[in-house]
Design goal:
heterodimer, A: TIM Barrel, four-stranded mixed beta sheet, B: Glutaconate Coenzyme A-transferase, seven-stranded parallel beta sheet, 15 helices
Chain lengths: 410, 518
């Protein structure tokens, strides 16, 4: 058997990654050369790990070359497996890192989804500390952030990351590719406890059902417990038109997101900061999602340096009914969270309404009044929602009634 | 082979350095030398031109007139940083005079001094006593220097010269502006660099002082940071420095989200620990994380309407902005890093020149560093006992200078904001490769994964009770990092030979740097 494959990155500027080449041979055993920036500290460990990896993959006779720039173990494994697979596309075995406890938390249907941080699926350096910036979710992106030639490499890397990387309390999301490639992506990631699959460019409820069916089949085969939820992304005129049907396509849909770069291209209108061209689509997504019992999530704000712009964009999204926003840089997360949090005034008002409602209930009164104003049932419901959000965001303690906590937003 | 003795920190250090006995480190504040300070020889005005014109035609002539001979000690300074064009010319002139075995005592050497490796090889320079950044550090690490290197802090260099431990025969002071009498300043001229404080000790204690400038002005040069009455000769060169490498036009805060997180946590720590209050003081360097820390701190100060009494440090436009905005009464400048700092030093009476004597000298009647409420410093390694390394990498290679780092540990709260690992290399370790700062003086380590407070600082821990900051045990942080990077690193492979000694602020030897193999 002969074949050669290489994977990973090398050269100036590469950090926390490695490049591995695998050349299959007919005999001669395993020949391993390792060059590493961290050779004096981890050279032996790298040799041991790569040799064990070759055995696990069934590479008995091969020349393996490693050029390492400080890759951590799960990255070394991913690059080795990808290089081996490129050398032998029929490779049957996989090199699964041991599942860490921090990666085993189950998905939760109802939770805060204010921020979701995009992480390019083939850049391991960005994975390691992503959870420290406390996003509500991280998205390991297999789609737009990965070059077509690296889709296979990203699949292996993202799979390993799902088993090893501690993303803290963040919801673990994966954005798959469009169409058939996206369904194949699921074979790689669905068994490894992703909480949410982001499905791009959805225009038809059948796309959602296809993903849900594939996920269910994979999970059943892998005997995986727990649920995997879906977040379809609306990125076209047709998708926006059918927003409700898409959100209602399957019970696993927990949120509907809108992507405006593709949407504005689709309708042929330039994307503006003001966003009048996408007003209808955003409202359509909000209403479609809410009607189907899903959370509406806004697009990303792409100017990382413009914090005021991000704040204004979040305020507008909140005003339209969105509950979250995409982030392309960790520094956007705190701004987004602050923008979607109830304001101190909103919080104080909601507390007064809920207290008045509970008092009226206790006294058996049919009518709730606050001062001279009558309060309708939907107003009470909204106030309860505000308090729930504030509690989930840590702005209000659960026993605020007794603690004298006036709900001052930090 | 050099005889090694164990010092009070449990480190094996050379008992003798380049033929002179050395005192092993005895503990913080334990070593109290007796006697009187060194002093330069008495001179007479009769030997200097009455018209005040001390100019010499070129460096070679000036060195000859200074009596340069084999084995002498030459002092120079790093205020022109990586743009210095003077030191290389001095040693080239010495080489042309056929002189051998010189001891070079720079306040720091930079990558621009790499050409001097040739003169170390040819025997013109015997060894270097000073911080060696970059290629010279590597050269020393590989055991190729004939003598043992000696690394001192900025304050330690002053202490050594003042105490007579290092006698400077000839000091060469690069001066961005000077007059023929020898008065000199760094705050103006084509090679303006701000402060000349590192050269002050040499001007007071050296046998012979040569000022080198490319901007000669008629007497008097005002202001004078270096006083002409201490200067023997003045040499005019076409260019003393490469301006683009002396001060940066713009010092930039870090863009790394992880470093920004560390900087933000550091500022929040200072706030929640009660350090940020009216009249407080702090020092932060010019590295990306330290600059970002200053910005986060500024936001807190603005919001809470707090004003500092003084800030110390390498001055940058960020500190200058704070001064001009009224967030601090003074900048006490120890080194000037950008053009905004140089301008402010020239124009703002609140921007004050200091020196290693006022700020850092341990053998003085107090120093400014100990008055600081918070000091924010970097490190290459920190161990579980809070000991820190700032000169060698985890592979044992000598790559950085000490600067004012060691002196700043005297501050009331020493904070090291560091990443918990760099690429795969842990910063948090069991035992630092080279000891530069004893753990008892390091109060807080701030990483992206959490903040470790030294258990010796129960007062800080008490103030932080109930805080939402991610406070962690340093051993837990280390364990978490090792889980990520796949275990602790193998110790570096080091030779027997001690290639450099690390001097504590009092002149005792706190650690030795071993030769790196391979």
């Amino acid at each position: 058997m002969a074949g050669r494959g290489e994977a990973g990155s090398r050269g100036a500027g590469v950090r926390s990654d490695c490049w591995i080449s695998v050349e299959l041979r007919d005999g001669g055993g395993l020949e391993l050369t390792v060059a590493s920036k961290v050779a004096s500290m981890y050279g032996e460990r790298i040799r041991t790990q790569v040799a064990a990896g070759c055995r696990a993959l069934g590479l008995e006779h091969a020349r393996v070359e490693v050029d390492d720039q400080g890759a951590v173990p799960f990255v070394l494994d991913a690059r080795l497996e990808c290089a081996a697979r490129r050398a032998d596309p029929g490779l049957a075995r996989v090199l699964l890192p041991e599942l860490r406890l921090c990666c085993a938390a189950p998905a939760v249907r109802r939770r805060l989804r204010r921020s979701r941080l995009y992480l390019p699926g083939n850049q391991p350096k960005l994975f390691l500390n992503a959870g420290l910036h406390l996003p509500d979710g991280v998205i390991l992106d297999l789609e737009d952030a990965v070059a077509p030639a690296e889709k296979d490499a990203a699949r292996v890397l993202v799979r390993n990351a799902l088993r090893v990387v501690d993303f803290g309390a963040a919801e673990r999301m994966v954005r798959i590719n469009q169409g058939e490639r996206g369904l194949e992506d699921l074979d790689w990631v669905a068994p490894h406890n992703p909480h949410v699959i982001l499905v791009p460019k959805v225009e038809d409820p059948a796309q959602v059902r296809a993903v849900a069916a594939r996920v269910a089949a994979i999970r059943k085969k892998a005997k995986a417990a727990g649920e995997v939820f879906l977040m379809p992304i609306i990125e076209s005129a047709l998708g926006a038109w059918r927003a409700f049907e898409i959100a209602a396509a399957d019970p696993s849909v927990i949120a509907l997101a809108v992507g405006l770069e593709d949407y504005t291209a689709d309708i042929g209108a330039p994307r503006t900061l003001e966003g009048r061209e996408s007003f209808w689509a955003r409202c359509q997504v909000v209403n479609g999602a809410v009607a189907a019992g899903a959370q509406p999530i806004d697009t990303v704000f792409s100017d990382v340096a413009d914090e005021d712009g991000l704040r204004a964009s979040c305020a507008e999204a909140k005003a339209l009914g969105f509950v979250g926003k995409g982030c392309i840089h960790p520094r956007q997360i705190a701004v987004v969270h602050a923008a979607f949090a109830p304001t101190p005034d909103e919080l104080a008002k909601a507390q007064r309404i809920v207290l008045a409602f509970e008092q009226a209930e206790a006294q058996g009164l049919g009518v709730v009044a606050l001062g001279s104003k009558m309060i309708d049932a939907p107003v009470v419901k909204r106030a309860q929602g505000v308090l729930a959000t504030a509690q989930a965001a840590g702005l209000l303690s659960a026993d605020w009634r007794g603690s004298g906590d006036e709900g001052v937003a930090r | 082979m050099t005889k090694l003795v164990e010092n009070a920190a449990g480190r094996l250090v050379p008992a003798e350095i380049n033929g002179h006995p050395a005192v092993p480190y005895r503990g913080v504040g334990r070593y109290r030398p007796q006697g009187r300070k060194a002093a330069p020889p008495i001179r007479s005005c009769a030997d200097y031109p009455a018209d005040g014109d001390k100019t010499a035609p070129d460096l070679g002539t000036a060195l000859q007139r200074a009596g340069l001979r084999d084995g002498m000690t030459i002092g120079s300074h790093h205020h022109l940083r990586n743009g210095d064009l003077v030191a290389n010319q001095v040693f080239r002139a010495a080489a042309e005079l056929g002189v051998k075995d010189l001891r070079w005592v720079p306040s720091a050497a930079f990558p621009c001094h790499a050409p001097l490796i040739e003169l170390l090889e040819s025997g013109v320079i015997h060894h270097i006593e000073g911080s060696m950044n970059g290629p010279l550090g590597d050269y020393c690490s590989q055991g190729r220097m004939r003598g043992m290197g000696v690394l001192r802090s900025h304050g330690g260099r002053w202490q050594a010269i003042q105490d007579g431990e290092v006698h400077i025969d000839i000091a060469v002071i690069a001066a961005p502006t000077a007059d023929p009498f020898g008065n000199a300043t760094g705050d103006r001229g084509p090679a303006a660099c701000g402060l000349l404080g590192f050269a002050l000790a040499d001007s007071l204690y050296a046998d012979h002082v040569i000022v080198v400038t490319d901007n000669l002005v008629p007497f008097p040069c005002i202001p004078w940071q270096i006083q002409g009455n201490n200067v023997d000769q003045v040499v005019v060169l076409d260019r003393i420095g490469d301006a683009s490498k002396i001060v940066s036009g713009t010092t930039e805060i870090t863009k790394s989200p992880d470093r920004l997180l560390i900087a933000e946590l550091t500022a929040r720590f200072c706030d929640e620990a009660g350090i940020v209050r009216d009249g407080f003081s702090f020092q932060a360097g010019a590295g990306g994380t330290a600059l970002s820390f200053a910005l986060f701190l500024r936001d807190i100060m603005r919001e809470r309407r707090i004003k500092a009494r003084f800030v110390r440090g390498g001055s940058t436009r960020y500190l200058v902005d704070m001064l001009e905005e009224g967030l601090t009464d003074y900048i006490l400048d120890g080194q000037t890093f950008d053009l905004a700092g140089v301008r402010s030093m020239r124009e703002n009476p609140g921007h004050v020149n200091t020196s290693p004597f006022t700020s850092y000298n341990w053998h003085g009647k107090g120093n400014f560093a100990s008055l600081l409420d918070a000091v924010v410093l970097g490190a290459t390694e920190v161990d579980v006992d809070f000991n820190a390394n700032v000169v060698t990498h985890s592979d044992g290679r000598l790559l950085h200078g000490i600067g004012g780092w060691m002196n700043c540990l005297a501050g009331r709260c020493t904070i090291l904001p560091v990443p918990s690992f760099r690429d795969r290399i842990p910063v948090l370790v069991d035992r630092v490769t080279t000891l530069c700062g004893p753990g008892e003086l390091i109060d807080v380590v701030v990483t992206e994964r959490g903040i470790a407070v030294n258990p010796l600082r129960q007062d800080l821990l008490a103030k932080l009770r109930g805080s939402s900051l991610p406070l962690r045990d340093i051993r837990d942080l280390k364990a978490e990092v090792e889980e990520i990077v796949g275990g602790p690193p193998a110790p570096p492979e080091l030779g027997e030979k001690v290639v450099a000694a690390i001097k504590w602020v009092d002149g005792t030897v706190i650690d030795g740097v071993r030769e790196v193999k391979g």
